[in-house]
Amino acid sequence: MLNRGRSAAISLIAGLLACGLMYGVYKLQLRQVRLQETVGVVVPKDFIRSGTFLSEDMLELKPVLRGSYREGMLASIEAAAGKETLLPLGRGEPVLDWKLDRFHLMPGSGQATFQIPKEYVLSLSNGIRAGDTVKLYVSGKEGSSLLFGHDIVVASVKSSANVEIDDPKNPALFSRVNGDMESMYAARREANGAIDQINLNLTEQEWLAIDEACRDKKAKLVIAFASSSIVEKPPVK
Fold first, then answer.
1. pTM over 0.85
2. pLDDT higher than threshold 80 for residue 225
3. Coil, strand or helix: which one is 198?
4. CA atoms of 122 and 33, how far apart (whole Å)
5. Are 230 and 181 in contact (CB under 8 A)?
6. Which of 18, 30, 43, 72 is the S-S candidate for 62 at Cβ 3.0 to 4.6 Å?
7. Residue 148 and residue 58: Cα distance in Å, rounded?
């Protein structure tokens, strides 16, 4: 009886192990089948430059193996349309969500983009680039003071040839997106020109305050690069 019971127990255990092994093989095969399945991801139809606003006709869905799908890939064209590219996108290259921004460099609610007249500017930091934040100071015979208690977003900085200031070989924006502070620093040292024009995203009240302070030529602006450009993303108001 004892041997018979032991045999029955061994048979039961063996059966359970066999069932477990079969289930494991089934799950492995199912996983392999799923990895061979395809999912649609958003890709550009052609090369797209950085700073381009995406429209649906620029994009298409491309099937990729589920095993090749990575976090951040977009599965619907609607998720990308209407956003701005932070980096160039290659033809047929899966669009990643971190390469896009809906409000980057655009004026926020209640704002507009104003070009600051040259005669209003006393000093302008050469390291400023589009997407940075700056502090505005008013300097005149009566002294200097901070104009606003918050930082201002830079929409663009251009040379006298109306070309955006940057390092073409190593754009500062690329380095910022990747969190590479060393490359960002290097990019700001190798600019393709001197800043001739600066455009800021301002509310009407902010622009009127600047105009009021500088239009009589008794005071001018000092525009300084703000540390918030590095430690955090510029805020959208």
1. no
2. yes
3. strand
4. 66
5. yes
6. 43
7. 40
